[in-house]
Amino acid sequence: MDALALEASGKKLPNGSSITALPPTTPAKRKPAKKAKKAVVFFEVEILDAKTKDKLCFLDKVEPNATIGEIKSMFHKSHPQFYPARQSIRLDPKGKSLKDEDVLQHLPVGTTATFYFRDLGAQISWVTVFLTEYTGPLVIYLLFYFRVPFIYAPKYDFTTSKHWVVHLACMCHSFHYVKRLLETLFVHRFSHGTMPLRNIFKNCSYYWGFAAWMAYYINHPLYTPPIYGEQQIRLALIVFLFCQIGNLSIHIALRNLRPPGSKTRKIPYPTKNPFTWIFVLVSCPNYTYELGSWLGFTLMTQCLPVAFFTLVGFIQMTVWAKGKHRSYLKEFRDYPPLRSPILPFVL
Amino acid sequence: MASGEEDGAVDEKENNNKKKTKSAIVTAWLTFYNIAMTAGWLVLAMAMARFYIQKGTHKGLYRSIARTIKFFQTFALVEVGHCAIGIVRTSVIVTGVQVCSRIFLVWFITNSIRQIQNEESVILFLVVWTLTEITRYSYYTFKLLHHLPYFVKWARYNLFIILYPLGVIGELLTIYAALPVVRRTGMFSMRLPNKYNVSFDYYYCLIIVMLSYIPLFPQLYFHMLRQRRRVLHGEVIVEKDD
């Protein structure tokens, strides 16, 4: 049994309440006592393994207003291999994870709190994963575009395609991933800091693999340009650019919903930017615009692997959009009823 | 209120009755399905035995049972549906992979590539499949009828130890035998240039399929071994959860 004594910081409770031992099942909403007692009643926290129920850590003299995040840091001190990002702390071995912001005294626990710990496995930051998974396609596509050796027949090494749509496609594809990289660095505000480490291998295989497959055919010496020629390419480019701007507008609108460093969630609404007016009909227009961009790219290149990539991406984004839509509905009573998850009125 | 409680109890009873009839229908369907499949594979076994006894050779055996095996093996797709809707408690993915690999072999290898239909490896996997399926479906049938003879349970959870690897050998040898034919004829393949800007080489696809046995077969095999330990020896195995 680990005993980690916390130094009493001498902080006083804001409402001066005196705390009596409560049975674990009642919620800990106590009425503030009118006495001006300045004594602080500390909590004791014991952390058990969720699977084996072994006592992993015992913390005494924990402040009542300590957050789960602070408790995770304390646990990390006694178990250095479990950095806070990989800890899942819950009230019930099979229950939901508690949030870092949850305050100890507001949880349904007595003065001796029992938490269950689950190891989430090695974690990696979202930013790292995004940067890696987006840099890959950028570089890989260019390798095929410049026809570096060992991809196509040697007589084509370092040659360029005679079709101008191939050059256009390279610009669009590269622009798309540069935009994503810049958004990751400067626009997005992530709710979660980390994700499981194995996700980076899964995600990179997906993005890099598809990028290579698409780039191979688009930049192939035997590439066939679109059937309807200029018209098709022009329309495709307009759709692509429109949706790229739309996607960026949505990302900026979502960022502005959330003050820096916070994890608050609010209902997004249309702003002055016309590209955000789609919020009237759709919960996740960033995915709608993303689908549109890739449809544009498919039309531009007339390449079946690109169509396939668009389809797979659409399926995944629909799953995400439905989940997000459901959590919006759960969290906000006044959520606009006209909105669909990803496709207006349809999906 | 007393009447309110009574109504509630009546509703609950109605719900329970509905659930019971649903599960009765489900059980009836599953029992019928498993009996039908057991019968089908028994018919296949007898047809193969009769052919070999009468003709003394395995040449032409596949052709004689081709339609029957295509029917019964393809029909097994409904088992994926069973798992998906939850009336059978098995993983959709495990069942899906097994059924798909069978269907792939029947339709995309033996059915499409006539030149390899008289290979010995084909007979090998046909015999293995027949024995495995008869055991498996009769096990399910007896289980549903709540009358499971021990020897059926024993067969289901022991024969696979030899039959699985033998079946894999038969399948791999068959695909390997098909490779030169596929290369020569360029079947199922698409070359550049074409208006879809895609190409597909069935030859390399088959090589990838053969390589995929390396990660997939051990997983299925050890899954069955774990089931065996649990069913025959009552061992409780803690699965690693994600």
From TrEMBL, chain A:
Give the enzyme class.
Answer: oxidoreductase
Q: CDD domains, per this entry?
A: Ubl_TECR
- Lipid biosynthesis recorded as keyword: yes
Q: Where is the TECR-like N-terminal domain?
A: 43-119
Domain 3-oxo-5-alpha-steroid 4-dehydrogenase C-terminal positions: 194-347
Question: Might you report a single GO cellular component term?
Answer: endoplasmic reticulum membrane
- Keywords attached to this entry: Acetylation, Endoplasmic reticulum, Fatty acid biosynthesis, Fatty acid metabolism, Lipid biosynthesis, Lipid metabolism, Membrane, NADP, Oxidoreductase, Phosphoprotein, Transmembrane, Transmembrane helix
Pathway given for this chain reads: Lipid metabolism; fatty acid biosynthesis; Sphingolipid metabolism; Lipid metabolism; sphingolipid metabolism
Gene Ontology annotations of biological process type: very long-chain fatty acid biosynthetic process
This protein's membrane topology, according to the annotation, is: Multi-pass membrane protein
- Which GO terms of the molecular function aspect are on file? very-long-chain enoyl-CoA reductase activity
Query: What SUPFAM superfamilies would the database entry show?
Result: Ubiquitin-like
Where can this protein be found?
Endoplasmic reticulum membrane
User: Which EC number applies?
Assistant: 1.3.1.93
Q: Name one Pfam family in it.
A: TECR_N
PANTHER family linked to this entry: 3-OXO-5-ALPHA-STEROID 4-DEHYDROGENASE, VERY-LONG-CHAIN ENOYL-COA REDUCTASE
The record describes the protein's role as: Involved in both the production of very long-chain fatty acids for sphingolipid synthesis and the degradation of the sphingosine moiety in sphingolipids through the sphingosine 1-phosphate metabolic pathway. Catalyzes the last of the four reactions of the long-chain fatty acids elongation cycle. This endoplasmic reticulum-bound enzymatic process, allows the addition of 2 carbons to the chain of long- and very long-chain fatty acids/VLCFAs per cycle.
Record-stated family: Belongs to the steroid 5-alpha reductase family.
Protein name as catalogued: Very-long-chain enoyl-CoA reductase
Q: Which organism is it from?
A: Neogobius melanostomus
TrEMBL record, chain B:
Q: Which keywords accompany this UniProt record?
A: Endoplasmic reticulum, Fatty acid biosynthesis, Fatty acid metabolism, Lipid biosynthesis, Lipid metabolism, Lyase, Membrane, Transmembrane, Transmembrane helix
Q: Where is the signal peptide?
A: none
Q: What class of enzyme is it?
A: lyase
Q: Where are the transmembrane segments?
A: 32-53, 93-110, 122-139, 159-182, 202-222
Coarsely, its chief localization is: endoplasmic reticulum
Q: Which domain of life is it from?
A: Eukaryota
Stated EC number for the protein is 4.2.1.134
Q: Which reaction does it catalyse?
A: (3R)-hydroxyhexadecanoyl-CoA = (2E)-hexadecenoyl-CoA + H2O; a very-long-chain (3R)-3-hydroxyacyl-CoA = a very-long-chain (2E)-enoyl-CoA + H2O
Membrane-protein topology:
Multi-pass membrane protein
State its location(s): Endoplasmic reticulum membrane; Membrane
Q: Pfam families, alphabetically?
A: PTPLA (PF04387)
> What metabolic or biological pathway is this protein involved in?
Lipid metabolism; fatty acid biosynthesis
| GO biological process terms, semicolon-separated | fatty acid elongation; sphingolipid biosynthetic process; very long-chain fatty acid biosynthetic process
- Which Gene Ontology terms cover its molecular function? very-long-chain (3R)-3-hydroxyacyl-CoA dehydratase activity
According to the UniProt record, one GO cellular component term is:
endoplasmic reticulum membrane
Q: Which family does it belong to?
A: Belongs to the very long-chain fatty acids dehydratase HACD family.
Read off the PANTHER family from this record.
VERY-LONG-CHAIN (3R)-3-HYDROXYACYL-COA DEHYDRATASE, VERY-LONG-CHAIN (3R)-3-HYDROXYACYL-COA DEHYDRATASE 1
Question: What role does it play?
Answer: Catalyzes the third of the four reactions of the long-chain fatty acids elongation cycle. This endoplasmic reticulum-bound enzymatic process, allows the addition of two carbons to the chain of long- and very long-chain fatty acids/VLCFAs per cycle. This enzyme catalyzes the dehydration of the 3-hydroxyacyl-CoA intermediate into trans-2,3-enoyl-CoA, within each cycle of fatty acid elongation. Thereby, it participates to the production of VLCFAs of different chain lengths that are involved in multiple biological processes as precursors of membrane lipids and lipid mediators.
Name of this protein: Very-long-chain (3R)-3-hydroxyacyl-CoA dehydratase
Lineage here is: Eukaryota, Metazoa, Chordata, Craniata, Vertebrata
